[in-house]
Design goal:
Layout (H helix, E strand, L loop, with lengths): L9 H17 L5 E6 L4 H14 L3 E5 L11 E7 L1 H6 L7 E6 L1 H6 L6 E4 L4 H12 L5 E5 L5 H4 L6 H4 L1 E5 L6 H11 L2 E3 L12 H10 L4 E2 L4 H5 L3 E4 L2 H18 L6 E2 L4 E4 L1 H6 L7 H13 L1
Parallel strand pairs: 1-2, 1-3, 3-4, 4-5, 5-11, 6-7, 6-8, 8-9
Antiparallel strand pairs: 10-12
């Protein structure tokens, strides 16, 4: 009998059967993504699930405190979810993409992520929404903490005079009320910037009440402010973040050329109809506004 035709000895067969599952199990680890969060959150697991479905890759969610155990032998890339995960990340062995972080968060991060999706919308998009809702000639005021915030505010690349936008710096006034008084006296809309030190729980009531008394709408800075009383905003939720994250991961893992940190091109439009009614505004359907804004950006 030919040696090649000889039956496999039973003990050897068992070794092969034991070894094969290990090989099959170990191979996908090279294709895994790890989502890193500072605490267990349903939002993070949902984002991981959406990304796994889009990319076809296996994913795991791990806590930031476990980052020392994360290695290239296990994962190809890390997705840092939120500013706490980005600020606390010091693992230099894995390429990291940050999501749900602001432009300011990314600018301050050490080490810097290879890519990121800013959580705030570009102010050019927010301004375009204002024009669709209120008209081309409406003067717009924007409140900033101080001039040091300018580089990461998203305003630096805009032609403010041409866009009819005037910045007001809180540091130039003795109180938030005085800054708002001047801004609201001279403008017909307030453009909110994504700045948690300014637009926070302590200030938002003052900002909204002051604006509401003068029938001046706040637009932005994010979807959470719609519930508080903003008129409208553009925003990116988990579905839109997963869509852009899919593109970033595919590009970076294919050839190591990671897209630079940037705003999310995928977004939704949110409207507060109760605020619109109180301001006597006829507001188009949010889906129609979204289509118009997307068309403008494609041009």
């Amino acid at each position: 009998m030919n040696r090649m035709d000889a039956p496999i000895h039973p003990p050897l067969r068992w070794l092969i059967l034991l070894w094969l599952p290990f090989c099959l199990w170990s191979q996908p680890l090279q294709a895994q993504l790890v989502f890193v969060t500072h605490e267990p959150l349903p939002l993070v697991q949902d984002l991981a699930n959406r990304t796994a479905e889009l990319t076809g890759r296996t994913v795991q969610v791990r806590l930031l405190a476990e980052q020392r155990a994360l290695s290239p032998q296990q994962y190809q890339a890390a997705v840092l979810v939120g500013p706490q995960a980005l600020a606390g990340w010091n693992n230099r062995s894995l390429p990291a993409v940050a999501v749900f972080v602001s432009r300011a968060d990314v600018a301050a991060a050490q080490p810097a992520p290879v890519s990121a999706i800013y959580t705030e919308p570009p102010l050019s998009r927010q301004l375009a929404l204002i024009r669709l809702l209120l008209g081309e000639d409406v003067p717009v005021g924007v409140l900033l903490q101080d001039r040091a915030f300018w580089p990461v505010s998203g305003l630096a690349g805009l032609d403010l005079a041409g866009a009819g936008v005037t910045p007001y710096y809180l540091s130039d006034y003795d109180s938030l009320n005085h800054a708002l008084l001047e801004l609201l006296r001279e403008n017909r809309a307030l453009l909110g910037v994504y700045d948690p030190q300014l637009y926070n729980a302590a200030n938002i009531k003052t900002i909204l009440i002051s604006a509401y008394r003068r029938s001046i709408p706040l637009l932005g800075p994010g979807s959470a402010y719609l519930r508080a009383g903003a008129l409208a905003t553009t925003y990116s939720g988990n579905a839109e973040v997963a869509q852009r994250l899919h593109e970033i991961l595919n590009a970076g893992l294919a050839d190591g050329l990671w897209p630079a940190p940037a705003y999310n091109p995928y977004f939704r439009v949110g409207i507060n109809p109760q605020v619109a009614r109180s301001l006597n505004l006829l507001v188009p359907d949010s889906d129609e506004l979204e289509r118009q804004l997307q068309g403008q950006e494609k041009r």
